Amino acid sequence: MSKKTKKTTPKENTKKVPLKEKLGINRKKVLLSLLVSFAAPFVLLICSGFSVFFANAGEFNFGFVDFAPLWILGSLLVGGIFFTSLIFTKGVAYNSLFSVYSFIAILGFVQNMVTTMTFQGIPGDGNASVPTPAKVILNFAVWVILATVIIWFSVLSKKKAQGRVIISFLLVLVMVMQLATTIPSAINYITREEAPKPTTDDSMVYLTTDNMFEVSTVDNIIVLVLDRFDDRYFQELKNSGSDYLNALDGFTYYADNISTYPRTYPAITSMLTGTENDFSSRSGYFTKAYGTSSFLKDIDNNGYKINLYIPTYYTYDNAEVFAGKVANISGAQGYTVDNHFALLGKMFELSSYFWAPEMFKSATISTDAFNSVVSLDGSAPKYEMTQTSDAEFYNIFREDGLSTQSKEGTFTFLHLRGCHSPFTLDENCNIKAGDNYHSLAQTTGMFKFISEYLQELKDKGLYEDATIIITGDHAALSSDKELYNDPNLTALLVKEKGQSGTPLKTSYAQVSQDNLHATIVKSAGLKTDSDYGTAYSEVPEGENIERTHYFQIYTGNAREDENVTYTIKGPGSDFNNWKITNREHIGSIYQ
User: Of 12, 206, 430, 467, which is the most buried if we count CB atoms within 10 A?
Assistant: First the structure.
């Protein structure tokens, strides 16, 4: 009888393979996965987010510690998710994830560098231009090409192992370079002179929205400033045949007006004080200008209640400089971050502008967007010019109208967002979230607001005796970094006291913001010891007046910003009359 061969069962032959061995987890994979997983959040979240905060800290109503811990924690969480997905995969899946995470870090860094080199300011603040379709397509093509290269080297190539080594080296290089650009920003943030953040000792005094629509039954001086009210925008409005211009009876339109400066800083402070800026220190300029100018003091001495509605950072740091003269000020007993997660979301949106592809960049995020999640603990809301503020102020005006006080005259200086891009208002002064309208729609919406404001003054019998000026702090810029190629005229409409009932007139007198104070003083009949010069209405048409405009070239490099002096002799509408008479380095515009 033959001996039967004993057969072995599959179970007896199967050897249990540990998960670690099955997934190929070893020291090399762990180290490589750690590098790839944390490169993207380190470069695009931690470094990019911190750099954006450091560069714009003076404009935020919150501090570094209010977002940094959660920001770091969130970045580590993203890195942890990336690492987990890598460590538990192998083969094609691992290689694919490796290439995606590497792609995000490397391409994001490259995009960040490109955006920074052409950076003209926070997009929603109206400084960044909208990219052309050709630029968007080219940018997208570059992303696709570089993504293809990375995927080829780490997934498809026969030498993908060597490809991953090269990509790993690039990731280390990218992290070192990103860190090298972040450290100087951090040092500058720590050592720079900043506006004081509100604390529990009332150190932050700010301008509020109090009395915004209060006028006097005694006398009124009203200056309505539309940000970036370029003369071309007013021409557009006139050519459209808008009925809102019918409200401008008694007004004179000055078609050849030149602003002193091309940006809100230092234009508004210059308009309120007449003090030139040497650009040695932003906060120092505010202190000097408001502290030494006689203009607001003279208005106060003539028995006027002064209400200023101007935003911080670009026009003042601490409203203590207005103490004793301005009515709408308040001290903050600290500030409150209403929603930390919303704060992180807005910070992500802001920082992603730098590293996202052109087609995905947010064109509306701005520094003032954070005001909706951070509030000052003061007695009244802080006055800010947000993308929605004009529509919100208009709604308040429509609901409550103008109130009156009869104790003294009222000087109102209201700086509205006006004609500033991005254009988000429609013709009825309603905000259209997510839509970038056009200059005519927004300008029309603003004049709907203005026409109803003027009509209420008429209804209350206060219009004829009021001095009313509608103008811009400056015109619009085609570029922050290049010299002018055409005239830069700011729209100006003036109704002196006693004027009303006559159609809108046009004057081609060569005027400038140098004539602003004299117009207010002489129209209102203020008694002063100072000679404020010539009023708008005193400049004869046809006479060539030498005027000065200071343009600051913004380079983004603290050592290279320039102050360029334009001297204009003759009609400002003729660019041949704009001559550069001086150029000087000023360091950083906003230092």
Answer: 206
Domain assignment of residue 389, yes or no = yes
Looking at the structure, do residues 132 and 266 belong to the same domain, yes or no? Answer: no
Tell me the backbone φ, ψ of residue 440, rounded to 5 degrees: -65, -45
Same domain, 406 and 524: yes
Q: How far is CA 498 from CA 219, 392, 502, 504, in A?
A: 11, 32, 11, 15
For 319, the enclosing helix (H) or strand (E) is: none
Please name the residue that has the structure tokens 């987990």.
Answer: 84
Residues 232 and 307 in one domain: yes
- Range among 78-87, 145-154, 404-413 rated most confident: 404-413
Domain with 97 in it: 19-191
Please report, for residues 250, 463, 541, the alpha-carbon distance to residue 459 in angstroms, rounded to integers and kept in the order given: 16, 8, 34
- Of the candidates 398, 413, 497, the residue with the CA atom closest to the CA atom of residue 455: 398
Residue 314 belongs to domain with CATH number: 3.40.720.10
pLDDT in tens, 157-205: 666 677 778 888 889 999 999 999 899 888 888 876 555 555 444 467 8
Collapsing DSSP to helix, strand or coil, 298 comes out as: helix
Rounded to 5, what percent of the chain is helix, strand, coil?
A: 45, 15, 40
Q: Which residue has the higher pLDDT, 235 or 589?
A: 235
Which among 322, 274, 299, 293 is positioned nearest to 219, based on CA atoms?
299
| 303 and 433 together in one domain | yes
Mean pLDDT of the 528-548 span: 96
- Cβ-based neighbours of 262, under 8 Å, separated by 6 or more: 474, 475, 477, 488, 549, 550, 551, 552
Give me the amino acid identity at 251. F
Domain termination site, one of 191, 225, 242: 191
Q: What is the per-residue pLDDT for 125?
A: 61
Kind plus residue range of the DSSP H or E element containing 309 = strand 304-309
Co-location of 181 and 222 in the same domain: no
User: Tens digits of per-residue pLDDT, 7-57?
Assistant: 555 555 555 655 555 555 778 888 888 999 999 999 999 999 998 888 877
- Identify which of 251, 274, 270 has the alpha carbon closest to the alpha carbon of residue 262: 270
- Region for 445 from its dihedrals, namely left if φ exceeds 0, alpha if ψ lies in -120 to 50, beta otherwise: alpha
Residue at 199 is within a domain: no
Determine the Cα–Cα distance for residues 237 and 370; give it in Å rounded to an integer.
32
- Residue written as token pair 């109206």: 126
For helices 48-56 and 68-87, angle between their N-to-C axes, nearest 10 degrees:
170
Q: Are residues 221 and 305 in the same domain?
A: yes
Q: How many domains does the chain have?
A: 2
From 168, 191, 214, the end of a domain falls on 191
